[in-house]
Amino acid sequence: MRAGVVVSGGGMDKRTETLAVVIFALTYLLISGRRLKMLPLNRPAAAVLGTALMVAAGVLTPEEAYRAVDHDTLVLLLGMMLIAAYLHLAGFFEWCADRILRWARTPVRLLAGLMAVSAVASALLVNDTVCLMLTPLVVAVMVRGGLPLAPYLLGLAMSANLGSVATLVGNPQNMIIGSLSGLSFAGFPRSLLLPALAGLGIAFLILWFGFRRILRSARIRRPQGPPPPMDRRLVGLSLVVLAGVFAGFLAGWNLAWTALTGAAALMVLARRDTHEVLRQVDWHLLVFFAALFVVVEGFNRTGLPDRWYVQVRPLFGETPVSQAVHLTWFSLVGSNLFSNVPFVLVAGQWMANFADPALMWKVMALATTFAGNLTILGSVANIIVVESARGHCEIGFWDYARVGIPVTILSTAVGLLLLLWVG
């Protein structure tokens, strides 16, 4: 599936088309977080089930299923995860957490520092991986510092989502957009960095206001003794490789294979047990996205997305500004109904029909990423944070939504204005 390619469902009989829709709906029901009693499957397993059913039902042949997978996205994810894994094994994230706790003089300043680190790390690596590695550290640091967990966990998740919009490697949907759109790696941050910073500021202010009484009464217990150990050689080597990878990105090299080459070089130069490193990779996430490509391709083969687009197309208007505004709210709704990655895979084929496709790809990146802050189920990063901290802090659906809804609405509105201004 590529940008501008419209897959027709004309060659599919009614029975197969119905099966494709049912399989897609079942898969979505399972991956959206609602486990059925008779099918207690997690997200990757649900996507694998959907993939198998698409082939078994004759919606796709095995060969078509293989071709549906965007291997560049998976390779890029793997490469960035491996680099992040070396930083984790070197103790870099623990060291950063300790430094922030020592630097912060007030709980509010600590929240700002945590959100800044999370946003920057997510822009450079992958937000899901950053949350996976930072959440246990945040819990440990806050417990050690005698601080309330809720505002910091929400800040971690929301800033990871917001910061990740700034680059084409910040989150999985941006990676897919980069693969489908052909947008340049260097040009993307020029358009999305300012919206990311504005969104980060909005999220911080709303969290500060919402938790102002708790933060005002909290007191930081500063860490005593030396900072946690860090393998300075491995950290330095990892950062040099990361800088080299980004230099390759800016030079226009293939994103996926530049990242994987950097990761492979690091595996050779680091002289660490590679089994230990590979265990840090989120293989569940890679399986989830590989299977999801197949499920969405099967759904696209029905032609239903194209028919839906024909119905809503008049609402978008003819000018780039009108189309950007309407695509934004459409992406916000679609991302929360279908999850952002499936929505991007379905809606990506419409981009060539807009007046300014390049702008629309950026609008969709902004809207689908910022939409992740609406609810706990809005992004994988949110789920990782909430589930990883469950033994220490319970964050319910409405606990998150009462902050997530204003953050999403304001950051998206301001971000879109800035994106249209920057171009």
Give a structural overview.
This protein is mostly helical and 423 residues long. The longest helix is centred in the last third of the chain and has 26 residues, at 397-422. 72% of the residues lie in helices and 0% in strands. The chain is globular, with a radius of gyration of 21 Å. The model is unreliable at 1-10 (pLDDT under 50).
Notable features of this structure?
423 residues, mainly alpha, 0% strand, globular, disordered N terminus
Summarize the structure.
The protein is mainly α and 423 residues long. The chain has helices spanning 14-31, 43-56, 62-68, 71-89, 92-103, 107-124, 127-145, 150-164, 172-181, 187-210, 212-217, 232-250, 255-270, 274-278, 283-300, 304-312, 320-338, 340-347, 357-370, 380-388, 397-422.
Average pLDDT figure: 86
Content of β-strand: under 5%
Order of helices and strands: HHHHHHHHHHHHHHHHHHHHH
Tell me the span between the first and last alpha carbons. Answer: 26 Å
Number of strands: 0
Radius of gyration: 21 Å
- The chain-level structural class is mainly alpha
Largest sheet composition: none
Q: Please count the helical segments.
A: 21
Q: List unreliable stretches of 5+ residues.
A: 1-10
- Percent range for helical residues? over 70%
**Judging from the principal axes of the Cα atoms, what is the shape?**
globular
